[in-house]
Amino acid sequence: MSMQGKTLLISGGTRGIGKAIVYAFAAQGCNVAFTYNSNAEIAAEIANDVEKNHGVKCRGYALNILEPDEYKEVFAKFDEDFDRLDFFISNAIISGRAVVGGFGPFMRLKPKGLNNIYTATVNAFVVGAQEAAKRMEKVGGGSIISMSSTGNLVYTPNYAGHGTNKAAVEAMVRYAAAELGEKGIRVNAVSGGPIDTDALKAFPNYEEVKSEVVARSPLSRMGEAEDLTGACLFLCGSGSSWLTGQTIVVDGGTTFQ
């Protein structure tokens, strides 16, 4: 697969799944832009490393995912650095104080926490995809992906807030696919089973979750961030040219057992 001369923009590209995707696309000759929350130093280090080792253009832009309209500023800066956009991946998530009331048992859920998760998951996807589609239309089309999770398919303790919003963003993906197809833009989701990232390690029951995943998976291991990059590359390649409005589940077989 060659992505020479094409460009990806992904939200949340400095760690975990997002960082793995940045490097996977750069390795295929794709120019890469990514957003980060607050650590400009780490973002600069990643951008410099990608450019040095893969010979592509790479830039990082600050974005508060709880303020989706900031995407408009991000894309304005993107336009100054890149002359085309072919792929957009909505990946950034929130954690910490922002999810208080959204992460926990059902009886402890609060509207503010749930609303924050919806903003970061669904609203951010909508605004980012809208801005991306405007640019993709100019080059004849492209591919948009929302990262999702199997937490909307399989019960996961304390995950009701995230799980329901992942279900919501997958529905939004289908609507976007139905309306953007005429522009040559395909829209899909990649749903990962529990992946061993810093976000998962923040779960208070991390060890319990990890043990359960290993026990459930026929492959007897936890998923790694790199395990999701192949599906993303496929959805942005010519081999998926007639695939849109779908969710690809990458879960090590855990949702079946």
From TrEMBL:
One of its GO terms (molecular function) is oxidoreductase activity. Keywords: Oxidoreductase. It comes from the Bacteria. InterPro entries: NAD(P)-bd_dom_sf (IPR036291), SDR_fam (IPR002347). It holds the Pfam family adh_short_C2. Belongs to the short-chain dehydrogenases/reductases (SDR) family. NCBIfam families: PRK08416.1. PANTHER family: OXIDOREDUCTASE, SHORT-CHAIN DEHYDROGENASE/REDUCTASE FAMILY (AFU_ORTHOLOGUE AFUA_5G02870) (PTHR43639), SHORT-CHAIN DEHYDROGENASE_REDUCTASE FAMILY PROTEIN (PTHR43639:SF1). This is Short-chain dehydrogenase/reductase SDR.
